[in-house]
Amino acid sequence: MTDYSDLPSMLADLSTCRACAEAGYDIYSTPIVAGQQAARLMVVGQAPSGADAQSNIPFTGEAGSRLFDWLKRAGWDDEESFRQTAYITSVTKCFPGEKENGSGDRQASAKERKLCRKWLDAEIALVRPEVIVPVGSLAVKLFYPPQLQLADVIGESMIDAQGRHIVPLPHPSGASRWLNNPHNVGRLEQALYRLRTLKADLGL
Ligand code: SF4
Question: How many domains does the chain have?
Fold first, then answer.
């Protein structure tokens, strides 16, 4: 539950959050989320990328380009209008930095994800989206029983206890091994079809 009555108040407090740094994590303490309280669709990514940290806008890097290619196929032809009407956030709001060996971005730890959970709960409570699109396994697992795998849920329809449509997507990284499996490409196509149908039915 949230004690906030409006999104700007919550975002003001979120912008000052240093919980991960105070817990000893060497992260970029700049929460990156975007959107309006009236948004009817919420995208929940895993964590901002380095490109997102530079632009201060979620999903602006390579993975963002791929995500918007997918959304285009689901009927959102224009990235800017999507950004203006959706709310885009992530499991952890701050760029976690790169791995020590330089092989990509570090994945936020379970402790960081737990520290950040209250902010996502507050965002969902305030925005009250009709459709939630969790992107990537860390985001998807927040909405499903932990034993389920991506292959069990991508492309499947789900309405949660609050009546929200949950449409999970895999992580759009070009390096995603999950998408190397042709069966999984079919699951992605089914998920995009599901989004396209919801867009039409709900007038999103
Ligand atoms: S990732 Fe979340 S909990 Fe951690 S400092 Fe950023 S906003 Fe706070």
Answer: 1
